Amino acid sequence: MNSELIAMLDYLERERSIKREVLVEAISNALLAASKKSFTSGTRELRIDINPKNGEIRALAKLIAVEKVSNPHDEILHSKAKALKADIQLGEEIEVEVTPRDFGRIAAQAARQAINQRIRQIEKDMIYEEFKDRAGEIVSGTVRRFEKSNVIVDLGKFEGTMPSSERVVTEEYSIGDRVRAYVVEVQNGVRGPEIILSRSHPNFVRRLFEIEVSEIADRTVELKVIAREAGYRTKVAVHSADAKVDPVGACVGMRGARVKNIVRELNNEKVDIIRWDPDPLKFAAAALKPANIRNISLDENTHTIRVLVGREDLSLAIGKRGQNARLTSKLTGWNVDIEEDKTAEQVLASQKAQAAHSVAEALGISEEEAGILAENGMNSIEAILTGDASDIAELLSCDADRGQKIYEAAKAAAEHAPAAS
């Protein structure tokens, strides 16, 4: 047992990085719990002593010196106690070795499972102690296996779990793949510590920027807000209190080198870097670039930013499946309502209606008929006179006589119109 114990201590200390004194204490406690039933006497304040150098195991108990033993588990004859300590008095305590003859065999058989359990608990405690303060960091590992839809990542001495909710929907993982992930939290549950990893968390992007951009690391540039739809697009708002520092340029890097490294780690997820502004209107306008904004306004009652863009910019501003609008809303903290600007069309429609009204009055026709003529290019007296009566009759689906009357009315209106100065 002694040589096996020493070999076990050496192995666990070397391979598992568990301190020898911790192991000795754990094994002593396990042996104590496992071997109490094998003692027929001498169990008062029983403890197990293990020599960490040679592996010798002794059982020691604190017994009370008495004239006559009535409880062998707690007492020892005064005469025997005097052999161990000459000046001991009746009623005094003395520590006595009570190791049974077959203790080595009993310990080897009964304590092995208890020792293994304790060692596993020590390892779990070590995992928790090492990782409990690493939440918020990025770690690297290898995909080891899959448990249902969770990815188990080998981090060296430990394993981390990437739940399905923390995976990027556009990424596929295979056993043996090297991955980097963000440590969301370290849970110390009933089954031991569990390291929760994520590649979809917005703070994964934050940590990548802190690693890649020295100005963010030294706080010259502040990363104010992140809005992310993992696998598709991320918007990052940055700011610098130093007017001489361009926060966007610092994050992009020379020839885009810095942001390219981040995009590569994110498997080509699109990353927009935006200058943060305390004015929500300016901030929202910057977040929606390169869409050309015609008008932007703020409704504090509904906490909404209303944005008007031209028809050609509408899909660009809203983004695929509304993604750009959603991320802008997350980034600014305001509801963002993007609509097509129809002001020009409304003005044109009003002008057409006014022209049709004028033509209708001049020719003595209905505004509906004037509208039909306008839609076909005859939107003024001058335009009507470029055609003839048959054209008018055809457009209005009327007889030739009525067409001729309308044409004559147009000629009369033109003759009475004031000459242009």
Question: Characteristics of this structure?
Answer:
16 helices, OB fold (Dihydrolipoamide Acetyltransferase, E2P), N Utilization Substance Protein A, Chain:P, domain 4, 4-stranded mixed sheet, 5-stranded mixed β-barrel, 421 residues, alpha/beta
Topology overview:
Layout: H1 2-15, H2 20-35, E1 47-50, E2 57-66, E3 75-77, H3 78-84, E4 93-97, H4 103-131, E5 138-147, E6 150-154, E7 159-162, E8 178-189, E9 192-198, H5 202-212, H6 214-217, E10 222-229, E11 233-239, H7 247-252, H8 257-265, E12 270-275, H9 280-287, E13 293-299, E14 304-309, H10 311-318, H11 323-332, E15 335-340, H12 343-363, H13 367-375, H14 381-385, H15 389-396, H16 400-416
Parallel strand pairs: 2-3, 7-9, 11-12, 14-15
Antiparallel strand pairs: 1-2, 2-4, 5-6, 5-8, 6-7, 8-9, 10-11, 13-14
Helix pairs in contact: 2-4, 5-8, 9-11, 12-13, 15-16
